[in-house]
Amino acid sequence: MLKKLFAEFFGTFWLVFGGCGSALFAAGVPNTGIGLLGVALAFGLTVLTMVYAVGHISGGHFNPAVSVGLMIGGRFPAKDLIPYIIAQLVGAIAAAGCLYIILNGAGAFSKEGAGAFATNFYDLPGYNNRSFSVGAAFLAEFLLTAFFLIVIMGATDKWANGKFAGIAIGLCLTLIHLISIPITNTSVNPARSTSQALFVGGTALSQLWLFWLAPILGGAVGGAIYKLLLQKDQNA
User: Fold this and answer.
1) Ranges of H-type helices in 105-164
2) Which residues cross the membrane (predicted)?
3) Kindly report the CA angle at 225 between 67 and 48, in degrees rounded to 5?
């Protein structure tokens, strides 16, 4: 069990460090910055690489909503849920701490504005000065997490070609970010949201409830949909 928790710690650390780090350091570089597409790819690549690196040890969740969805879908034991979530949170917070130290080394850490320190947000003027309502943000996070679970469960089904599961999952997370970075700065992962909000505080912390509730519910629904409506009968 300890190895599984270490795998979840390192996988979630890499997701936050690579995904949020790309947004903080590389997205806005004049002329050569990676932009929205680059950040979306970075998040997808973090999951893709860690699925192959440690997925065989822990299952490669790196996300409390994924753990809940897999539990509802019958792929993960309930007794391991809380330890997994704790390991994911610790990994995410450790990564955010490293990002803070690096960013602060250049005097560039800021708590100002929507999405400061790669936090998630709603009802605030963000990209193109658009402000998405709490309902719009909730629906986006709910739907995208539900589909993420459907892809995860389908790609890792025993009837699927498991060698390509990491690629499908990584590309799905990339697509999710392409859709929702302009809406909420993309969560679909309560650990990722919590780690950044803890360093910013204020509005980021007060809005954190949505980035727990919507992904958790979406993950649970996605897991249930796959189990009840899509999963092939093992006796067939």
Assistant:
1) 134-155
2) 7-27, 33-54, 81-103, 132-152, 164-183, 209-230
3) 45
C-alpha closest to that of 183 among 143, 145, 126, 144: 126
Query: CB burial class (10 A; 0-12, 13-18, 19+) of residue 196?
Result: buried
**187-235 per-position pLDDT tens digit:** 999 999 999 999 999 999 999 999 999 999 999 999 999 999 998 776 5
Could you tell me the CATH number of the domain that includes residue 11?
1.20.1080.10
Could you give the CA distance from residue 193 to residue 118 in angstroms, rounded to a whole number?
Answer: 9
Number of domains observed in the structure of the chain: 1
- From CA 155, how far away is CA 47, in angstroms rounded? 14
Look at residues 64, 81, 70, 69 and name the one whose alpha carbon lies nearest to residue 11: 64
Tell me: the pLDDT tens digits for 45-56?
Answer: 999 999 999 999
In a domain, 225, yes or no: yes
Residue 236, in any domain of the structure = no
Q: Is residue 75 part of a domain?
A: yes
Residue pair 4/81 in contact (Cβ under 8 Å)? The answer is: no
- Indicate the SS3 state at residue 166: helix
